[in-house]
Amino acid sequence: MKNTSTQAKRKLKVAEFLELQITASGKTQSALAGEIGINQNMISLVIREKTKLPLERVQAFAKALKIDPMDLFLRCIEEYQPSLLEQMESMLNQPVLTDGESNLIKLIREKSGANFEFFLSSTQKQAFDDFLKTLEIN
Q1: Which of 22, 50, 60, 69 has the most crowded CB, counting CB atoms within 10 A?
Q2: CA 16, CA 33: separation in Å to the nearest integer?
Q3: Would you give the distance in Å from CA 110 to the centre of its chain?
Q4: pLDDT digits over 53-85, tens only?
Q5: 22-33: per-residue pLDDT in tens?
Q6: Rounded CA gap, 62 and 22, in Å?
Q7: Residue 95, helix vs strand vs coil
């Protein structure tokens, strides 16, 4: 039986996510392949879901696409080996972030310059607390 923490994660499959990221990067599959050091056909096969993204290539893909390598790695594990993800979550004692949670963290990092010390001022702390209240379900 699936642990509730792993039930509603990412809505996009790895292939769909990569296709969107490649489009957003403005790079061709050929240019991306050259940057990663693989054959362009491999990218095409991954996007068409004919093969899985090799885990050892995750970091190179993420770097070339300027995306979070841990997020891409966890997407792959979640899709390709869900029971392994459940074991990882159990050992870490926390669920892997959902897309929404990950996006919220990215926004905070962008606005704070990747510096979480923005909670040092009471004004910033209060503003964040006020924001969190808007997320509460009545």
Answers
A1: 22
A2: 17
A3: 15
A4: 999 999 999 999 999 898 899 899 989 988 888
A5: 999 999 999 999
A6: 10
A7: coil
